[in-house]
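pinned: reference chain
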Amino acid sequence: MQNQPASDSGIGRFFAGAGKVIIALTVLAFLGLHTLNFFAWTFPDEQAIYRPLGFGLTGGAFIAYILIFKFMAKTDLQKFVSMSMILICGIGELAAAGFGMQVEAYTNAGIAFTKEEIDIMIWAIRILGGVHAVALVLDFIGDDIGAAWKSKGTPISETVFDRRVESRTYPAQVPSPIPPTVPQVTTPSPFPTPSE
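pinned: its structure tokens
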């Protein structure tokens, strides 16, 4: 009996799949816990609801957009949005987890954060929230917006908004707003003038 290559082995595929799941869960838990640590530091106990919601902006959304790309994205725009958000949410998760590690390290070392450092963290989360809003609008109605824009009927090349020099057509001669001067023709008068 001939040995099967490792790639065709059912046992090999099982262990490879299990390894992939374990790695994904380990990375998600490691980064996710640091992200939650950052949001726990950011929001007091009476605002604890924002802690898991903050994770939803980063790691949770990263997973969701992977699933959206795999199973729901049908149009080119939806695929582009989901691929972009996978990248952006991944960066956001790394940033938030990094902030969480920084909070833990600074706290243990007795170092206080400066106002500028806190502002950078807050701006990073603000920008991520804004990008989420744009992405959701594009995902839900981006194709409808594109169709509405196209259905206007008049291409931009036929409007005043077209600034391409090569597309403009000018008439051969532009009429002047001033009427042409007509030469004065003198006709002899039938009445005699006093000089005659």
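why pinned: The chain has a mean pLDDT of 83. The CA atoms of residues 3 and 9 lie 9 Å apart.
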